Amino acid sequence: MICKRRLRLDGLISFFPYSGIIQKAVKTIKYRYAYTVTEDLMRYVSSLKLPKQSILIPIPLYVSRHRFRGFNQAEILARAIEKKFDIPVRTDVLKRVIKTVPQVEMKNREKRLSNMNGAFIINNEEISTLLHKTIVLVDDVYTTGATIQSACETLKREGVKIVWGLTIAQ
Questions:
Q1: What is the pTM of this model?
Q2: Which residue from 95, 39, 102 is spatially nearest to 68, judged by alpha carbons?
């Protein structure tokens, strides 16, 4: 169990509860391609306390899903946070290598967790520049945590010491 904990998130920041108007806003961003809603939501976030050495890494989409959608909602959110709080974004570190079933289509926690096994890899050329920084994985929603936890585990197995998660909602 200690080994498992070592590979878990060190913390999670979610700006809003995933219900009501926020749930509608997230679905609008993701499925109606209205990603400018992210900047509207960021107007309601007044502060963000992260260590100075923090780096934002948006959860990547699989290449075909990114091509179909035309954008990555996690990257749009990370760029809005970067703009508002002056925290750098890196999109060259983490790569999604498995075309997973969309998590929203899975209601069972165990299936969601197994769906994300091995979904990410690290760009080994870039990892050495991040080992002593706080990595903040950015995604739209934290439900079971399967996506963000899978990415976290991938980073920690490569030697990253501190990994946080940040989402619009939980």
A1: 0.86
A2: 102
Q: CA-CA distance, 75 to 84, in Å (whole number)?
A: 14
Q: Which of 95, 90, 96 is nearest to 54 (CA)?
A: 90
- DSSP code for 143: S
Report how far residue 169's alpha carbon sits from residue 140's, in angstroms, rounded to the nearest whole number.
7
pLDDT in tens, 70-127: 889 899 999 999 999 999 999 999 999 988 766 666 676 676 666 677 889 998 777 8
Query: Residue 110 is which amino acid?
Result: E
Tokens standing for residue 89: 């974004």
How far is the C-alpha of 42 from the C-alpha of 29, rounded, in Å?
Answer: 13
Calculate the CA dihedral of residues 170, 161, 154, 72 and round it to 10 degrees: 50
Question: What is the CATH code of the structural domain delimited by 2-169?
Answer: 3.40.50
The set of residues, in sequence order, having a beta carbon less than 8 Å from that of 88 and lying 6+ positions away, is: 55, 56, 82
**Minimal CA–CA distance to 138: which of 96, 65, 79?**
79
Q: Distance (Å, rounded) from C-alpha 43 to C-alpha 40?
A: 5
- Residue 40 binned pLDDT confidence (cut-offs 50, 70, 90): confident
The CA-to-CA distance between both ends of the chain, in Å, stands at 25
Across the range 23-28, mean pLDDT stands at 86
